[in-house]
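Subject: sequence -> structure tokens, single chain

Hey, anyone have a minute? Need the predicted structure for the following. Not urgent.
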Amino acid sequence: MARIPKETVDQIIHTADILEVVGDYVQLKRQGQNYWACCPFHNEKSPSFSVNPSKGLYKCFGCGKAGGIIQFVMDVEGSSYPEALQALAKKYGVAVPEEEERTPEEQLAQNERDSQYIVSNWAKDHYHRLLQNTEEGMSIGYGYLKERGLNLTTIQTFELGYSLDQWDDLLKSATAAGYEQKYLEKTGLVIRREDDQGHDTGRRYDRFRGRVMFPIHNVSGRVVGFGARTLKRDDKMAKYLNSPESEIYHKSDILYGLYQARQPIRNQELCYLVEGYLDVLSLHQGGIRNVVASSGTSLTEGQIRLIKRYTDNVTVLYDGDAAGIKASLRGIDLLLEGGLNVRVVLFPDGDDPDSYIRKVGDQRFTEYIELQSQDFIAFKTTLVAREASHDPVKKAEAIREVLQSIAKVPDGLKRQVFLQQTASVFGFEEQVIITEYNKLLKTRPEGRGGSQPPAVPPAPTAAPRRALTPEEEAEEAMYGVSGGSEAMAGSLSSSAADASDLGQPLDVLMQCEQAVLRLLVLYGPHEVQPEVTVAHYLLSQLDGTPLRTPLYAQLWSECREAFLQGQLPDLRLLAHHPDAAIRSLLADFATERYDLSPNWRIKDIYVPTELNLIQLACDNAILRLNKCHVQRERQQCLAQLNDTRLDDNDQLNALLRYNELTKLDNQLAQMLGTVVARGA
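Reply:
Had a minute. Here:
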């Protein structure tokens, strides 16, 4: 995608209303200066999700999600950064010119993809019109959907359609509308007939004829392909026909219904996985909106990654066909290997989710899946144990089959529990099962990530990690290993070694650096004195005092460079920094868990804010940071005085410098006392 100019990005950020955007997903209530709601990213009963409209930031104090308005759209919609920008620009009527940074080949490829999206969307509208506005569509297509219990709302929500039982209806209509045949062919809507030698005969005809059409959307809502069901009783004709792979349609990266199910999956922290289009449609209509389908294909790693973007919890809904269940077990193993928590619901023999919900109704269906849901490992253990109950050889193979699934589970504690359950079901001592599990690992090929799960019990491989604070746990859950708290930890590790080697307590140094950085980004444009901004004051006073924490130093340096170019720190823009660790840091700076009670103002009790005392806050932060650096250098001198390898001259210079620094440290302490007293 071509780069959107920075000026346009800034315009989108300043034009978009974060309260309005967030309010489309949750009900916000004002408390003090912030707005609160139950978090849209995890289940909770007490609101811990806060929005600060003046700073354009949100933060959940429960799960740790945080950022600006673009990050919110990315989080809640599962979209990319450019897609989020485009969505906000469209919502607020901001024109988006694009700076061309592509080669002619890249531009041509993008045009090809865009043309395929356009023609696919046109075909979707064409099929939808035929379903509702033609005699054949109404009598055959709509009649079938009505017979399956689908109402008009569901038909319109999923944009269902019908293809006329003619050889070239779509081809003629698309050509008349000005669409090029090559894009109809590339998307698989039209087929080119060739002779026995592979030469083009010049004949073209529609792929889909006389079928109910199910448009397939990607996560952004763009139509990428179609599923089509024939209504003819013909054993030689495939009941379902799907679009072929194309530049815009990759079956392994698509889940039917995900576009409509994204937000319900997030809200309920659960995804129901079914097999077919009608399963999704019937459940959605019955009030179960968090449902997607693999569309009859084997589950793929790409589809699993899609689910994991929205939840870690999956419940697979099986029909009662034993052969179908056995064939699906491999896909469940992939879900386990992907780190998902997997449960299973088995329907009575002969029923699938679509037929069962139509048979028993919405309420009884919901009650059934809640009562019948069981953990997959327990389900598989019971299933294979029952089949092998009277055959010792089959029983041994069944145990190994279950252990292979357990080995896919990344979480060690869960593996231990599953091994205990397996031993109980098969009637073996737990240690026997563990021994067999460890033997299996030695012969098992490496997994997708090139690593094996540890044997049970796992051997210690490193010093125990210190316990994380709730805030660190939230950041780790939000950003994972490659970003957020882990990235921040990596950024801080070098400063930890630096500070500790010199005798400077790490927490004190980091807190002092954080204090000046926080004032810079929160209050940079405000004045401490007439015509002297906070940014000018801090950057000039601390020009020779570098920040040693890499993450803080990076942000400080970027603000300084922008200031030298005449730009003051703008928190609304900084909140969309490309570095996830910096976004998280800024959200922490700008959001507070508690607001001042309005009763204080009602009683005319004046409580000064930090901004009211900004000069004192800046002076205090500057003095504390300088005192830290003085103490740091003082420790260096002390180390030199204790170094017997130095000659007398070096020892004398170190002593003189140590005395100077001691006096300076005392002066700074006195000045800090004065500042604190004035601000008290």
